[in-house]
Amino acid sequence: MLTGNEIRSKFIKFFEEKNHKHFESASLIPDDPTLLLTVAGMVPFKPYFLGQKEAPTPRVTTYQKCIRTNDLENVGRTARHHTFFEMLGNFSFGDYFREEAIIWSWEFITEVLKLEKDKLWVSVFTTDDEAERIWIEKCNFPKERIVRMGESENWWAAGPTGSCGPCSEIHVDLGPAYGGDENSKLGDEGTDNRFIEIWNLVFTEWNRMEDGSLQPLPKKNIDTGAGLERVAAMVQGKSNNFETDLLFPIVEEAGRLTNTTYGESPEKDFSLKVITDHSRAVTFLVNDGVIPSNEGRGYVLRRILRRAVRHGRLLGRTELFMFEMVDKVVDIMEGAYPELRKNIEHIKKVVKIEEEKFSNTLDQGIQLVTNEIKAVKERGENKLSGEVTFKLYDTYGFPYELTEEICEENGIEVLKEEFVEKMEEQREKARSARSVVMEKGQDSVIEELYDKYGTTEFVGYTELMTNGKLLSVRELENNRYALIFDRTSFYAESGGQEADHGIIEGEKLVARVLDVQKQKEIYTHVVEIESGLEELVEGATLSLTVDPVRREEIGKNHTATHLLHQALKDVLGSHVQQAGSACGADRLRFDFNHYEALTAEELERVEKIVNERIFMGTSVNSELMSMDQAKAKGATALFGDKYGSEVRVISIGDYSMELCGGTHINNIGKIGLFKIVSEAGVAAGVRRIEAQTSYKAYLAVVEMEKTMKRVAKNLKTDLNKIEERSEKVVEEVRDLSKETEALKAKVASFEANSLFDEVQEINGVKVLVKAFKDKEADSLREIVDKAKDKLGSCVIALGSDNDKAVFAVGVTKDLISKVKAGDLVREAAKIAEGNGGGRPDFAQAGGKNGAKVEEALATLKEILVNTL
Question: Which of 357, 532, 547, 555 ranks highest by number of CB atoms within 10 Å?
Fold first, then answer.
């Protein structure tokens, strides 16, 4: 019996022997901007099928990792639904067609996999006589097991128009035990779980026109897909994909971590399968650079991970466990995807951090949902309103999908339309709160100039001075004007790089350039006039000169961000991607995807790598090439950026290669020095590094040295002994803190003892109510604890006026059935214009008005008189 790994390798070998080139699995993040994730084996080859690009080779074979979430609620409930799965495929781009595709699929299934021929069924498109003929004549396949089906089952199309064609699907019959009877055929009602599709052969041969008519394609293509998990189940004699060797060891690991045995009950098996499937999806998504977030791919990852964590809770697992599941997934999958082992620590860290975040709110959310469901049932209803689901989502961060799933398990309908309406109301409020200010007429001016003259010619990569014809003059405020020329050497603000400054001159005109912006590749220069305003007329030819010092300083910082980007990948892992940047003359800022703050050691390594590269003095080269050429060379492109047919590639030796339209220095040695000045988080999964280069970096180091000298002076030691001296001071402070705490305890004990004369009895209960001046919350707590120890059964209520109000209330456990500390302190805080609460036996609170402390304590005494 073949293992899943053997099936995968035999498939590739089989088609390599048929002159196919094996392409490695593409990323789950597709190049196709219309797709969120790679959903099928053909996705990486979509441009070749659509005729947008020429295929690099006519025959290709792959095993492709895929993610689909359209049937997420069915994952774990059925035998064959998955979020993550592998698609085996062979493809032909204008080479072989129907006959070879059918014959080879039959050969592989019967001779390599050795599936029983009499259990196989085939479907073909209604009018595809050719496919049926090939199956019968070339494969000796019995006609009675060939079923013709319509467009819904046996037709593939890229969209309403464009490439399309019929397909032929291969199925395995599991027998009457899974539906129907001895006379049932493929396609009969009630046989979906009996006839299992394992391979789809698509014959792309038509081009559907706007009027719906079909025109033959000049080149016919083959696109096939066989789900590895399904094939493995059929080869291994399993009716359920989760029982194959690709998945069952992961099921067992989920069982071990949740103390559950597979087969105990359908409900527990369901949860184990969810955890198993989702652990594969989570592992591969994180490996390919996806970070949990509230949108796009990050939301897909977050949703899948949180669903798995919830099913762990259903099985009784309250501790973190999903990050541990990664180990077993890697064990099973690393043979085909060796990069998993390399990235395993990164994957586990991301999963653990997200799991920790969600675990903090999961139990509370589940309880809230359960309470709402109980309330709905008590009212004799069976629907949960959108207002409730939105509150759970918006206030408590509980995912809508989990609310929906829990309700479904309890027979409660969720009114999704109401939830969507509430979401839209919130978005509308957010939109209304924003104001966008635009200069009137700006767009119309640009459009007119574009129609009349086209785009501005930018020559600034090679020339810092040029002559340009003035095409447009617009007066702004404060002696400033907006100028547009037919050509310019000034770089416009773009891609996080600040605009050039400089001078525009005529015979008498001197205009200082303060900013440059571009729209539709038309450059607008914002200038301040120093003299010669009369020369500022449309049609005039003027001299445009960029400030070379500023240009070079910006170039140093921009080039440093390229080095920083690669150094971060070297230290943190290949998942690091740029999420934004800002490069000016005196600073640089670099945002990137990462899940946690960098340690001091990591920052030190990054900084060291960048400086080592600077000291090498490597040349910086720029080259124009096609996007395909850039990708072939391994250039890094920023996801979501739009690039033209020709792109500019910046290379720093063999260390860094990125697509970039900014300006750079010609040798990294000119950067001189690179110094990180800060690292912080700016959004979920996004970190920010701010740094300085060149002379500014030197000044930063000098300032640090001055600070250290001042510290050394304050510590009364030499600069070279500052670390040793500071450690001693810290130790001394620690000892003094211990002494201070001990003294505080003694003072509190003394004060508590001195207060015993003020203890009153209310209805037989010892009560101490006392106001202080300028006493901190910790001191009040100490007194409460000491007094409770000394008095035994009692109620203690203390307050202090520190300009603001501070309260501490203690109730011994034998009295909390009559009065609770949290209730008392809340009443006191209200009077002092504050709030607070706590446990029944002890609570603290604060208020804005310290002058109200006496009044608040008097009120507490009245409450105690009426309560005890």
Answer: 555
Q: What is the pLDDT of residues 120-144, one digit of tens each?
A: 999 999 999 999 999 999 999 999 9
Average pLDDT of the segment spanning 666-686: 89
Q: What are phi and psi of 381, to 5 degrees?
A: -110, 175
Average pLDDT, the chain: 88
* pLDDT value for 259: 95
Sign of the CA dihedral with 70 first, then 50, 217, and 203 last:
negative
Task: Say which DSSP state 619 is in.
Answer: B
In which band, very low, low, confident or very high, does the pLDDT at 639 lie, cut at 50, 70 and 90?
Answer: very low
pLDDT at 642: 43
Task: Estimate to the nearest angstrom the gap between the alpha carbon of 184 and the chain centroid.
Answer: 48
Nearest to 21 by CA among 1, 52, 48: 48
**CA-based end-to-end distance of the chain:** 79
| pLDDT value at residue 367 | 79
Cα(822)–Cα(863) distance, integer angstroms = 13
420: tokens are: 């969507």
Torsion angle in degrees (nearest 10) through CA of 270, 273, 279, 284: -130
Angle of the 344-378 helix axis to the 386-394 helix axis, nearest 10:
150
**Max CA separation in the chain (angstroms):** 110
Distance between CA atoms of 411 and 495, rounded to whole angstroms? 52
Give the helix/strand (H/E) hosting 842: strand 842-847
Q: What's the mean pLDDT in 703-732?
A: 85
Question: 124 is written with which tokens?
Answer: 């073909």
Dihedral sign, Cα of residue 120, residue 123, residue 129, residue 130: negative
Is a pLDDT exceeding 70 seen at residue 786?
A: yes
Mean pLDDT of 207-227: 88
CA distance 516 to 484: 10
Q: Which residues pair with 619 in a beta bridge?
A: 667
What residue type is assigned to position 572 of the chain? L
- Identity of the amino acid at 487: R
What backbone phi and psi angles, to 5 degrees, belong to 787? -65, -40
Q: How far apart are alpha carbons 488 and 248 in whole angstroms? A: 65
271 touches 152 (CB < 8 A): no
> Which residue is listed with tokens 């490695």?
24
Residue 100 and residue 17: Cα distance in Å, rounded?
13
Neighbours of 33 (CB within 10 A): 9
Identify the CA nearest to 294 among candidates 344, 228, 354, 239: 354
Closest CA to 132 of 201, 193, 57, 66: 201
Which of helix, strand or coil describes residue 457?
strand
Spatial neighbors of 749 by CB under 8 A, at least 6 apart, are 786
Once rounded to an integer, what is the mean pLDDT over residues 548-553? 95
Q: Which position has the token pair 């010619």? A: 457
Mean pLDDT on 471-497: 92
SS3 of residue 626 by DSSP: strand
- Residue 439's pLDDT band (cuts 50, 70, 90): very low
Mean pLDDT of 837-866: 91
Q: Which of 768, 776, 778 is nearest to 798 (CA)?
A: 768
Among 598, 579, 586, CA closest to 553: 586
User: What pLDDT is recorded for position 299?
Assistant: 85
- 711-733 burial string, b = 16+ CB within 10 Å, else e? ebeeeebeeeebeebeeeeeeee
Q: Exposed (0-12), middle (13-18) or buried (19+): which is 7, by Cβ within 10 Å?
A: buried
pLDDT of residue 536: 92
CA–CA gap between residue 306 and residue 357 (Å, rounded): 10
Give me the pLDDT at residue 576, please: 85
Q: What is the DSSP string of 478-498?
A: TTEEEEEESEE-PPPSBTTBP
- The SS3 assignment for 164 reads strand
Q: Which residues 6+ apart lie within 8 Å of 785 measured at CB?
A: 748, 810
Residue carrying structure tokens 């099921």: 251
Yes or no: say if 826 and 836 are a contact pair by the CB < 8 Å rule.
yes
